[in-house]
What we know:
single chain; two-stranded antiparallel sheet; 6 helices; 4 strands; 59% helix
Amino acid sequence: xxxxxxxxxxxxxxxxxxxxxxxxxxxxxxxxxxxxxxxxxxxxxxxxxxxxxxxxxxxxxxxxxxxxxxxxxxxxxxxxxxxxxxxxxxxxxxxxxxxxxxxxxxxxxxxxxxxxxxxxxxxxxxxxxxxxxxxxxxxxxxxxxxxxxxxxxxxxxxxxxxxxxxx
Length: 167
């Protein structure tokens, strides 16, 4: 692109607009569009397991439409075969991780961390008057009122997390 010819006699805002137009045109013309691939949510899932999951989902939707006993039995077979296959694949994947722990400890610890991760939060609670308790302090009060008659069981700590304490 000959920038002097394109932007030479324009003021700053017009030059910027012209530059953006040229850039967008080149991007649309030269950069191919592609959809990002999604990774399977389970590391041990392979093509066979994904096919079995699709088969199970199709059988479920077929049964939901027809409500026939035969269709439910087909769904149950697909569900059970998928469950058996995923358990087998999970066990094989974990054994592979254990065998390769010396050569690739990061892979092992990443898997362990993914299995042990928890989200430290308290679910929303409904108060006796029908409103929803949103803050941790109010949730602790709702739980106190529900479980204890006159004694405090949950205490709100300085970092806004509830811990069980009897006092």
